[in-house]
Amino acid sequence: RMEGFGRYLMPPGSEYRGELWDGMFHGKGILLLPNGGGYRALWNRGVPSQAKYTFADGLEYEEEKWRYCDGYDRRFYTEICTGFKPPGIAQLTNLDPPKIIPEGCYDCGDGFYNPETRVVVDYQHKFLRNADDEEHEWIIRNCRKAWDIIDEDKPNP
């Protein structure tokens, strides 16, 4: 069994870096996710405590004092850090410029969704998962579609 400090690679692209004991995450370590986020924790026999999730853009999730997208302040994290764009130029996602959505697909936040195949791929077009009926319906109702994109770089006259 693995013990000491090490790296443990998991499909589909997650990686643990940290202390191991008896083949389990044990001690300080971080679980790096394929989307660029990370889950840093103090692990006790595989169970995390004193944990903090950091999104790929650097935003840290705080369960007690979460103020991001709370209904009062609807700015994206990049807008909080760098300010708003000039009037008439919309920022549609936290990424600026946003990813170009492949034809017939949706941007579901961690990648692109093809409703014909019901497959979600990451932004590098690597397989993430098959969407169940509930996720399919949510994506169709809520996410940006390739065919709805307008030229957001030009302000209205």
Residue ranges: pLDDT <50 for 5 or more in a row?
Answer: 151-157
Number of helices: 2
Question: Gyration radius, to the nearest Å?
Answer: 19 Å
Strand fraction band? 25-35%
Could you report the average pLDDT, rounded to the nearest whole number? 82
Largest sheet: 5 strands, antiparallel
**Number of DSSP strands?**
10
N-end to C-end Cα span: 66 Å
Structural class: mainly beta
Principal-axes shape call? globular
Strand arrangement within the widest β-sheet reads: 1-2-3-4-5
Helix share, percent: 10-25%
H/E order of the elements? Answer: EEEEEHEEEEHE
InterPro entries: MORN, Morn5
Keywords: Cell projection, Cilium, Flagellum, Repeat
Main location: other
Subcellular location: Cell projection, Cilium, Flagellum
Describe this structure as you would to a colleague:
This is MORN repeat-containing protein 5. The chain is mainly β and 157 residues long. Among the domains are: 51 residues; 47 residues, no CATH class. Helices cover 10% and strands 34% of the residues. The strands form two sheets. The chain has a five-stranded antiparallel beta sheet, with no helix packed on it. Strand 2 and strand 3 form a beta hairpin. It is globular, with a radius of gyration of 19 Å.
Key traits:
disordered C terminus, 157 residues, mainly beta, 2 helices, 5-stranded antiparallel beta sheet
Briefly say what this structure is.
The chain is mainly beta. It contains two helices and ten strands.
